[in-house]
Each structure stands twice: as C-alpha cells, then as structure tokens.
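Late entry, written up from scratch paper. The run itself happened at the end of the previous shift, but nothing got recorded in the book at the time, so transcribing now.
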Amino acid sequence: MEPIWFTFLNGSDVDRLELSDTEVLDAVEQGLRAQGLGQTVIEPRVHLMPDPAFNGHFNVLRGYVAPLGLAGVKIVGDYVGNYEAGLPSEMALLNLFDPRTGMPVAVLDATAITEMRTGAMTALGARHLARPDAKVLGHIGARATSYWNVRLLDRIFDLTEIRVHSRRPESRKAFAERLERDLGKPVIVTEDWKTCVEGADIVVEASRLDRPQPLLKTEWIAPGALVVPYGTMSAVELTLTDIMDKIVVDDWGQCRSGQFGALRAHVESGRLSEETLQGELCEIVVGDKPGRERADETTLFWHRGLSLSDIALGAAMLKKAEERGLGQKLRFS
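Output as recorded:
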C-alpha cells in the first residue's frame, strides 16, 4: 500500500496565514449556507468530564459539509481556571477526513479557529438580526472568543461606542487595550454589568461563570436591541425570552439537548421551544425565513457553536496554507 499522508497546521502556521476578517466571515457563512440548503450533517456535541475536581470539560463537535467534501471532529477543552496557569481557557484540535473513504486529510490547531468562528457566528447573527444602524455594543466577557466578537461586529457595523466588562479587572483592562490598538478607536471599560449593557444596541454575554447566575437583568435591555448570550453557564434571567419578538439559534438539535448553555433553563421550562423559535440562522441566510423585519423588534440569537463552522474555516485555512507553502506533511501509515 502507498504511504498515507496528512497535513498538520500548528498554531504558528495558523497565525502566519493572517486570515482577514472577510475571509473568516465568508468561510463561516459558507458553512451556514450549506446547512440551510440541507448539505450538511450535524451530530449534537457531546461532553467529556474527566473529573469534577479539574473544573473543566471537553466538548466534542462532529459534522460533515458536502460542498467542501470534508467530515470533521473537533475536540476543545473548556477550563475556566486556566488563566491561573497562564494557559488559554479553550484549546482545541480539529481533525478533518475524507467522508468517502475515512482517510485523514488534516489535523489543525483549532484554538484560533474556535475563537474566529465564534466571533463570526456572533457577527453574522447580528448582520441579520440587529438594526442596520446599530452603533453601541455592550460586551460582557474578555476571553479569546470575545476579541473576535468585537472585531467582527465592528467590521460590519463600524461601532461608535464599545463597552466591555469582565469579572477580573486585569482581564477587562487588557482586553480593552488590545481592542483599542487593533480597531483604532476608544473602548470603555465598565465596572459593572449594568453600565456595560444598559441601552446598548447589541448586547453580547460571553461570561465565564462557575455556575448559573442571573447577572444580566432583562430590564436593562433596550427595545429594538439584539442580545447574544452564549456562555456555558447561564447568566440571564428566565424573563429574558419573554421580551423577545424573535429568537434564533444556530442549531436547534444542539440547543435543546445537553446540560450546558445560556438558555438551558429556558428550554427546560418550556419558554424556548420549537413553537416559540423563529428558526435557525441558516434558514435566514438562505432566505427561507426572515431576519429582522422592523426597527423596534427586540431579538435574541443563541449560538452553541457549530462543527460546520470549524470545518469550513479549517478548509479555508488548508487552502491558504497550500498556497503559501505552510504546514507539515506527516505520515499516517
């Protein structure tokens, strides 16, 4: 048998690709379009919790994107306390396969992929569900995905006011400094949740809580705003869904199952169901369902993270790496 080779892209390779904002958004939108056209398979994510004492778990995401000719499995660790060891809270590997034969195609450091595709999903959701003239962002959380949330939202909306808050003063200060440097505009660091989100046009809740706590109050949400909650542990009140004119998710199969997620209690209490759901973002992307229809609509977009986004962004990286001669060929057998 002939030798079998696959491509390995490490974190340094991914950094050297220097994907533009447009490239990231286009790749993730390609995955959404394929999903909306019924050209994908999504298996609900599963979780591995090695030991409760470790205060973390692994997410395993699986999917297939027919137009790309790739199946993929991503494993990402989610460890809230990693900052104490100087490590990212989320580190990941993406494995890509030929769906016709099962042959390995590539293994990629997917830490940056996770960050980019999460931010792209937030921004693409806002493109369809926020007011086109949205200018004020209130962002809770300063983890790595938060950076791409703000960066890509600013790319689409050219924000005039960016407010950020996180649990630790040092993390929110460093987050704001990075954003100011990269976006070239001032960022307001707030000392509390209310000051950060009250009256904002777009509210993103990406907190890192150890347990569910209703820290984001429904009364702070302005009419016509878009709210994007995606924390592992819920930080919103049960009443949040009561004020929404439209609720959209990335994949209802994932959102209605599992023990984690910002709106888990809303699903379990019946507040969020197939009947109260506007639909999935992919249905809006392909034109099967409307997004925002009026300026005064208050909307919510809950995304749990799609394997399809990982696969689509990984495919875009592989293509660019080949063009630039980056990555290593490793022998599988």
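The chain has ten helices and 15 strands.
(Scratch paper discarded after transcription.)
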